[in-house]
Specification:
Blueprint lengths: L3 E6 L3 H13 L3 E7 L9 H9 L3 E5 L6 H13 L4 E6 L4 H10 L1 E6 L4 H21 L4 E7 L6 H16 L2 E5 L6 H4 L8 H6 L6 H7 L1 E2 L5 E3 L12 H14 L2 E7 L4 H9 L2 E6 L3 H15 L7 E8 L7 H8 L2 E7 L2 H10 L10 H13 L3 H6 L9
Parallel strand pairs: 1-2, 1-3, 3-4, 4-5, 6-10, 6-11, 7-9, 7-10, 11-12, 12-13
Antiparallel strand pairs: 8-9
Helix pairs in contact: 3-4, 6-15, 10-11
Bound molecules: adenosine-5'-diphosphate (ADP) and magnesium ion.
């Protein structure tokens, strides 16, 4: 592994010194420059000095009492030095600070107090990812599914969308984050490992370990199975971010079923998603619930990304699609026809709807996959990153 050059940006003198000792202690990186204040504009001499140091990594310390200037500095440095990676250092107690830092362009969020091991792991991940990007191209896209209320069809849509993406483009993973995972049942799989095993082992995760936690479906779709124990121990936000970072590095498309789960993890996954598909029915209670879920997810800046999927769609006289959009507070993305017998038989037999390829409902999911990947040729060229706002 080549030695990485690091610039440290920290307003707190002690923290700056500590970080320098830790960086140099990793023995894979060296501090080449330190800054005692945050740059505020592109023309700021601080930016020029950082550029002159041409670092591989910029460590930006986010003070707990005033995170905004640090977040702006991350955005600015990321913009002005697009080839250098920004690692944010801060407290893990405020998920919003983590999300803002990632959105501003930070590639890692490292907990304070930081250890040499934390930094070493992050440096190793960076080098490994750079190697992979050079070999395998850009990062994958995440699509997540939430339902307006239980039974709306989130799992059905997630499973069939994942199969449709896999059959069109290959290299797709389905991640089951529902409170009780049903995706394995839909696919007639008996997983040996679940998402809990993956989050427990993040500290030593690499491509082959991640693969060993996945369960392969006949056609090649990879499932990271959900929990079969309600209320199992919840991973921290940082672990989730890291898991999805890993997944997006290894798979071209990652479909996440969160079903009825409404917590920090769902919000975080929504933040990391290209599109959040909110599955509802065309009735008052369902659309009312959809609006509440939309509001909950929208609080962390996802409003535009949450799109409505009307499952078991039926035309209601006097109630248009724009009425449904207004009631749910989200733009309509797709309609899925109402085919109760086919849908329930598919689950009972573990043979998903997508496997009956010439049916209307299979074509519907294939169409949804196409709609979601419409812009992908451009995305590929732009070397899209999971944490950038688009
Ligand atoms: N397009 C559809 N038409 C008819 N019934 C459906 C359709 N999609 C799902 N269902 C039925 O709705 C039930 C709930 O679906 P599921 O995907 O488990 O919802 P959720 O994950 O939102 O709780 C299933 O038993 C399934 O048979
Ligand atoms: Mg479900």
């Amino acid at each position: 592994m080549p030695e990485l050059s690091v610039v440290i940006v920290a307003t707190d003198n002690e923290q700056r010194t500590v970080l320098q000792v830790l960086v140099d202690g990793t023995s894979v990186a060296r501090t080449v420059h330190t800054c005692a204040s945050f740059p505020v504009a592109a023309a700021d001499p601080i930016v020029r000095r950082v550029q002159a140091a041409s670092p591989d990594v910029m460590l930006v310390d986010i003070p707990a009492d005033n995170p905004t200037p640090a977040q702006r500095a991350i955005e600015l440095l990321h913009q002005e030095l697009p080839d250098s990676a920004v690692f944010a250092i801060g407290s893990l107690t405020h998920p919003q600070v983590i999300v803002n830092a990632m959105r501003a362009g930070a590639r890692e969020f490292i907990e304070r107090p930081t250890t040499t091991t934390d930094l070493l792991e992050a440096f190793v991940r960076l080098t490994a990812a750079q190697r992979r990007v050079r070999q395998e191209g850009p990062r994958g896209k995440v699509f997540s599914l939430v339902n307006a209320k239980g039974g709306s069809g989130a799992t059905t849509v997630a499973v069939n969308l994942a199969l449709a993406l896999h059959s069109a483009y290959g290299n797709t993973a389905l991640v089951d984050l529902a409170p009780l995972g049903h995706a394995a049942l839909h696919l007639n799989l008996k997983p040996l490992f679940t998402v809990a095993d993956a989050t427990r082992n993040l500290h030593r995760m690499d491509a082959s370990l991640l693969e060993s936690f996945m369960t392969r479906h006949g056609g090649g779709l990879q499932l990271l199975a959900g929990t079969n124990v309600p209320a199992a121990q919840e991973p921290t936000s940082a672990e989730f971010v890291r898991l999805f970072d890993m997944l997006a590095t290894h798979y071209r498309y990652v479909v996440v079923d969160t079903s009825t789960r409404l917590d920090a993890a769902t919000r975080l996954v929504a933040n990391l998603s290209e599109c959040v598909l909110l599955v509802a029915h065309t009735d008052v209670a369902s659309l009312w619930s959809a609006a509440r879920v939309q509001q909950y997810l929208g609080e962390t800046g996802n409003r535009e990304r949450v799109r409505l999927v009307l499952n078991r769609f039926r035309k209601v006289t006097g109630f248009s699609e724009s009425d449904a959009e207004a009631a749910a507070g989200a733009k309509l993305l797709w309609r899925v026809p109402n085919q109760y017998f086919a849908a329930s038989a598919a689950i009972d037999r573990g043979i998903p709807l997508m496997e009956h390829s010439h049916t209307e409902i299979a074509r519907c999911f294939a169409g949804l996959a196409q709609e979601l990947t419409r812009d992908d040729a451009d995305v590929k060229r732009a070397a899209w990153s999971l944490f950038k706002t688009v």
